[in-house]
């Protein structure tokens, strides 16, 4: 239940050192050298909403690389595709969030010598309600909704994570020019998302073509647990990749 969720009273009161110990000191404390105080100025810039087991953030590499080949991209998540960016997953289910958290700690432990995976973390949170406690206006550069729950029944549509009023929230947290990515294999949900995103004044659809070279496109289609499941089931029906850019937002 929501009452067991922990969240700060506002974004500036969030103790990010628990999530990104390499980048933040405890609230109120400061790193005392210049390089480290730059790190403290970092903010979470990518949010994976309803991240599930956190495959988009990072995974144990499933490919055994015996002979490294420059032409094959073995990157498996946001952590190593965007090593300079802090990415946060938000997940409602306690057990799933706990699993993803432990996985990230294990990845960090396994990669201690390189410091990899220090840039990803997860919070257990109801993203429909609590984003304002974690993020400031214009903070996010990318927000992901991968294979969100379809909530088929009409009476349940209010639980869909993409809806007119929630889109206004997402636009608020996205920087101007920030990107919203969503993928689904459910045709009905795809149409719903297109409708609400197209009608929203703060978002503009951008073509798949214009995202050529954007490494995130490959990741959103292939890295999350749900996307792998759809692939395993022979589904070429990940028809729902949609990209929207956030437009100017009045203060
Ligand atoms: N994105 C992941 C993937 O592609 O593998 C998980 C997809 S799963 C079908 C949808 C996830 O969204 C579930 O893990 C669910 O618990 C989570 N979720 C649903 N509503 C949520 C909310 N309001 N806040 C945070 N997570 C939510």
UniProtKB/TrEMBL annotation:
The keyword DNA damage does not apply. SUPFAM superfamilies: S-adenosyl-L-methionine-dependent methyltransferases. It is an enzyme of class 2 (transferase). The active site is at 149. S-adenosyl-L-methionine binds at residues 50, 91-92, 126-127, 146, 224-226. InterPro entries: SAM-dependent_MTases_sf, Trm8_euk, tRNA_(Gua-N-7)_MeTrfase_Trmb. One of its GO terms (cellular component) is nucleus. Transmembrane segments: none annotated. It is found in: Nucleus. GO terms for molecular function: tRNA (guanine(46)-N7)-methyltransferase activity; tRNA binding. Gene3D superfamilies: Vaccinia Virus protein VP39. Pathway: tRNA modification; N(7)-methylguanine-tRNA biosynthesis. It holds the Pfam family Methyltransf_4. Keywords: Methyltransferase, Nucleus, RNA-binding, S-adenosyl-L-methionine, Transferase, tRNA processing, tRNA-binding. The keyword Chloroplast does not apply. Signal peptide: none annotated. Its EC number is 2.1.1.33. It catalyses: guanosine(46) in tRNA + S-adenosyl-L-methionine = N(7)-methylguanosine(46) in tRNA + S-adenosyl-L-homocysteine. Belongs to the class I-like SAM-binding methyltransferase superfamily. TrmB family. Catalyzes the formation of N(7)-methylguanine at position 46 (m7G46) in tRNA. This is tRNA (guanine-N(7)-)-methyltransferase. It comes from Zophobas morio. The lineage of its organism: Eukaryota, Metazoa, Ecdysozoa, Arthropoda, Hexapoda.
